Amino acid sequence: MAVARTTSKQSTSNGQRAEALDVLSLLHQDHEAVGAMIEEVNDCEPGDRRLKELSESIAQALTVHAKIEEDVFYPALRKRAEESEQLTDVFEAYTEHDVIKHLIALVESDRTRDEKFKAELQVLGEAVTHHVKEEESTIFAMARELMSREELVDFGAKMAKKKERLMKDVAA
Q1: Three-state secondary structure call for residue 112
Q2: Who contacts 137 (Cβ-Cβ below 8 Å, separation ≥6)?
Q3: Least CB-packed of 63, 140, 159, 164 within 10 Å?
Q4: Quick one: the chain helix, strand, coil %, rounded to 5?
Q5: Which whole number is the average pLDDT over 79-103?
Q6: pTM, entire model
Q7: What is the pLDDT of residue 110?
Q8: 8 - beta bridge partners?
Q9: Cβ atoms of residues 51 and 41 within 8 Å
Q10: Is 122 within 8 Å of 41 (Cβ atoms)?
Q11: Crossing angle for the helix pair 115-134 and 50-68, nearest 10 degrees?
C-alpha cells in the first residue's frame, strides 16, 4: 500500500535543513522494517539460529513502535475520534497492540527455541500483519481526515524524537 509522504523542512543543530517525515510515513517505515523481519522468519527452518536474533529485533522494534504510537499518536487521534464517532477504531488499535504485546512476551520467555518457537513467531507475524493492514487503512485514513498536514508533520517529528530516545535506551 502506498502512503503519501508529507514532509516539512526543519532546521538541525548545525543550521542545515532536514526533512521531517509525517507521522504516517514514519509509521509506514516501521511497518516495512518489521514486515521484512517477519518475512525472514518465515524463510527460516525451525531451530535456525537466526530465529533468536530475529525475535529479539522484532520485539524491540514493535515495543518501541507501540510506545510511540500509544504515547503520542493514538491519544491525539482518540481525542479527535471522540468528536467524529470513530472511537471504536482507535480502541481496536489499542487492543491489537495488547495482543501483540502478549505474543512478544511469549516469544521473549526463556525457553528452548524449537519448532513451537517458530510457530509462535509466525503467529506474532500474522497478528502484526493484520494490525498493519487495519492501521494503514482505517487509522491512517482517519488521521488524514481529522488532522491537518501540519499536525501530521508535527506528530511525525515528536514521534521520531521519542523513537530515537527509546532506541538509545534499549541499546544501552
Answers
A1: coil
A2: 1
A3: 164
A4: 75, 5, 15
A5: 91
A6: 0.84
A7: 65
A8: 20
A9: yes
A10: yes
A11: 30
**What does the alpha-carbon distance between residue 133 and residue 99 come to, in Å, rounded to a whole number?**
15
Q: Where are the domains of the chain?
A: 7-171
* CATH architecture designation of domain 7-171: Up-down Bundle (1.20)
- pLDDT score of 8 more than 80: no
- Identify the DSSP state of 20: E
User: Phi and psi of 12, rounded to 5°?
Assistant: -100, 175
Q: Cell numbers of 168, please?
A: 538509545
pLDDT tops 90 at residue 64: yes
Strands 17-21 vs 7-11: parallel, antiparallel or unpaired:
antiparallel
In one letter, which amino acid is 96? E
Residue 9: its H or E element: strand 7-11
The upper half-sphere exposure of residue 135, i.e. CA atoms within 13 Å in the direction of its Cβ, equals: 26
Cell of residue 136, nine digits:
494503514
Round the average pLDDT of the chain to a whole number and report it: 86
Q: Which three cell numbers stand for residue 71?
A: 504515547
Query: Which of 144, 32, 123, 134 lies closest to 91 in space, CA to CA?
Result: 134
pLDDT, one tens digit per residue, over 132-151 is 999 999 999 999 999 999 99
Task: State how far the alpha carbon of 59 is from the alpha carbons of 78, 102, 125, 139, in Å.
Answer: 25, 11, 11, 22
